[in-house]
Design brief:
- The structure is a single chain.
- This protein folds into four domains: about 130 residues, Endopeptidase. Chain P, domain 1 (Glutathione S-transferase Yfyf (Class Pi), Chain A, domain 2, Up-down Bundle); about 60 residues, no CATH class; about 140 residues, Neurolysin, domain 3, CATH 1.10.1370.10; about 170 residues, Neurolysin, domain 3, CATH 1.10.1370.40.
- Helix content is about 55%, strand content about 5%.
- The chain contains 28 helices and seven strands.
Amino acid sequence: MKNALLEIPFAIPFDRIRAEDIEPSIAQLIADAKARIEAIAASTEPRTYENTMFALDHATEPLDVAFGIVKHLESVATYPALREAHNAVQGPVSEFYSSIRLHDGLWKALKEYAATEEAKALAGVRARHLKKTLEAFRLSGADLDPAGKKRSAEIDIELTKLTTKFSEHVLDATNAFELLIDDEARLAGLPPSAVAAARQSAETKGLTGWRFTLQAPSYMAVMTYLDDRAIREKMYRAYAARAASGQYDNREILLQILELRQEKGKLLGFAHFADLALVDRMAKTGASAERFLTDLHEKTEAFFAKENAQLRAFAGGLELEPWDVGYYAEKQRVALYDFDEEQLRPYFSLSSAMAGMFELTGKLFGIRVMEKEGVPAWDKDVRYFDIFDAGSGEHLACFYADMHPRENKRGGAWMDAFLTGMPGVSPHLGLMCGNLTPPIGDQPALLTHRDVETLFHEFGHLLHHSLTRVPVRDLAGTSVPWDFVELPSQIMENWCWERPALDLFAHHYQTGEPIPEELFTKLKRARTYRAANAQMRQLSFAFVDLALHMRYDPARDGDVIAWSRKLLQPFSAAKLPEDHAMIASFTHLFANPVGYAAGYYSYKWAEVLDADAFSRFRKEGVFNAETGRAFRDCILAKGDSEDPAELYRQFMGRDPDPNALLLRSGLTTAN
């Protein structure tokens, strides 16, 4: 059988990709890419944009696509042979990618081109491409001496291996836990949907009783509704201590990752890794990001204290433990607003939510989304869609949707790109993944309102990729500074709170009735319930992230888990137990050589942008096609072809209002 990874068609043949194909194909694709890089460097032709910049932009494309598919499969359909093959090629791939920006001949070629009259006359996206490429080479160590370049490449390779192992440990530690309950009386408090899901989970394992896991739908139901405090504690401790002990212990790996990142930052002339990571982002420096967080913290702290005092009083003065907070918070929310989020679940079937989301984005952005059957995928539940421009009929993109948890799939929700097309020439190809509540028996997948927000969030990322019109791969789609990349995703969540948008899809799965007005009013009233706690939780992750990458010193500060727990404590509504080890499973920071490391603040940064940007939709109409077209043209289509701050000004006509987020969250005394 021909190796499917060597020549990948647009419709990726997932049914023909085998673990044994990975090592030979990746080796061949690395060799081919190396040859193209060498050809650019060695060329004696006069330097032009096409033979230098354009050639470089496409030199690694076949490898990028194939390795992206391998990484994807390891995330969504892993098995021992696949994991082994994936890990075997990680080092060679990382070594090759690191070598590109440390290649003396290629660096010389780029500088030669930059000195030409053609390069000096560049404008628009091509000028930005050259500028950002030169910056990226310098920030990767192109100007280092040979010893420095060698060490920089070694660090990159080691970080790739360590972060992969970190991610594997989190997945394996998550799957290693299960709790089987055989006494139905101990399930008191759980909604029927969670009880049925637990029963189905047990049956799939050939067990009797009710099975609970650390996968999000199962875990969150227990922590929110289960009356049995001992079970909540057991689940909480297992979740909070994942990958912090035993065979999946990430503690030493985490320390090595931090040490290597700091070494990389200092090697390239920065005070610490945070300043290296943020130099090309909107915040620019770690100190600037911390000032942003500190300002939000100061404006939130009083609301946070008030919320927690009110919850303690509601709980009868009980000294709340972490496994109590979500449980009593849900009961308080029901008491205050007569609102139980489970009441909404029958109105949010996954299929209708997706159909409504497509209709909504069609109205706003002038697109049509249509499902296509019979396309090979990695699991039977994966769906496939085409995106067309509604006006011209142009085929813009295709994407896969994989929305339910499995044991061979990592947790969380994410979007990724398989192929970046060329505007007017070839479509884009992407995917969106989630771990949303699966179907139970004959009942369709019924979501919580938070699940719907997650769905819209990831589709926002996908639209950023699918609607890009940038003809440079390095600057297209979501290839933007990470504190800007969350704007297109987070702004989509706003429509989940608008009645006209909900009426497109929020219909009872049995009767077809829309959400009753009384229930919708309760949802809206409860929107800002414990908003300060939600904000402080995100701020805690962002603060500890920056502290780890700016200040942590193991010789001075001791155990990294205990040190981080101490930093997190002031942001928690309850005292964190001694075995709390959240950062040992913090994949946002440690499952990627860079990822959100020193960049977790980006979520809050982008929340300010999305709260402010959505104010234009609120003013001009949540279905206003002209406003939607402006967002598509100014933000979604532009990628990183212009400075993000300038793109934002093009859409809003001004700089962002930093108070927009506080106003939306109810964290202000202003009227």
